[in-house]
Amino acid sequence: MDQWTNRLAPQLRALVELAAYDGHMTRAAAALGVPQSSMSRRIHALEEELHVPLLIHDGRIVRLTAAAERLAQQAREPLRQLDLAIDDVTGEADPDHGTVRFGFPLTMGSGRVPDLLAKFRHHHPGIKVLLKQAHGSALSTDLLAGNLDLAVVIPAPERLRHVRIGTQQIQVAVPDNHHLAALKRVRLADLEHETFIANPPSYNLRLLTETWCREAGYTPDIAFEVTEFATIRELVSRGLGIALLPHDERTPPGLTELPLAGPRYRRDVTLAWGATTEAPPTRRLSRFLLHHFARQDNVASAEYGQADR
Description:
The chain has helices at 2-20, 25-32, 36-50, 66-90, 112-123, 136-145, 204-215, 229-237, 280-297, 301-308, and strands at 55-58, 61-64, 98-105, 127-134, 150-153, 162-175, 195-198, 221-225, 243-246, 255-259, 266-273. The chain is of the alpha/beta class and 309 residues long. The radius of gyration is 24 Å and the shape is elongated.
C-alpha cells in the first residue's frame, strides 16, 4: 500500500481535480497551481502505472472514462482526510478559509436557511459553501458517503451525529375556493374523500401522509406524485387536489394553508454531521447555525453544547 501511496498521490490528486472540473484541464491545473503540461503528464503517468485508460479525447474536449470517474470518486475523500490530518498536526488548519459542502431539505428553500447562509457569508467571506438541496434520505446518504460535510436533515438520521434544531409544523394546503378553506382548523378525517398531491414514496412527508391518513381510518387517494414542493403548491392552487405540507413563504395566490387539529402533526428538524472528520470551516458553519437556531427556537442549551463538542 505504501508504494502505491508514495508513487500515485500526486497523480490521484490531479485526477480528482480533473473530475471536479468535468475534464477541463486548464481549470484543474489552475486549481492545483501547476502548469497544464504538468497536469497532462500526471494523468498520463497514472494511466501508465495502472495500465488503464483514463481519458477520452474528443477533438479539443477531454472526458474521463468510467474507470477514471470511479477512481476519482473513491480517492477524493481519502485525499481530503489526509489534508485535514496534516493541517491538524501542523497547526495550519484555517477556520476562516476553505469549503463546506452543505445540504438542506427541499422544504426549506426559502426563509430561514437562505437568510442564515447569506448572513454567514457576510461574516465569513473566506469560506465557500457548496449547496445541495434534496429530501432527507438522500441527504443522509450523502453525509454517510462523505459527499456532504453538514446538513439540515428531516427526519433525524439514525446513523449520524445530529441534534434537533427545531420543528416543522405540517398543515393542509387547499385551494382558496375549497369548501374547507374558511375553517380555522381541519381534522385529518375530514380529508378522506379528497384527492391528494404528494411526493414520491421515498420522501418522508409521503410516508407521514400515508401513515397519518391510515390512522384516521382511510388510505389517501394520491393522484399526483411530485418531487418539487413549489410545484405541489401550484397544482393545489389550480384545484387539482390538496396536500399535507409545511408552511412556506412562497405560497402562491389561490392557496390557503390550514392547521391540522391535533398536536402531533409535525417533524423534527435536525442538524447532522458527515461521517468524516469535521474540518475547521465546517465547525464554523455548524456553530453559527446552532447558535441562531437555538436563539430563534429555544432549542435546549444542553443539546447545543453537546453538539458543539
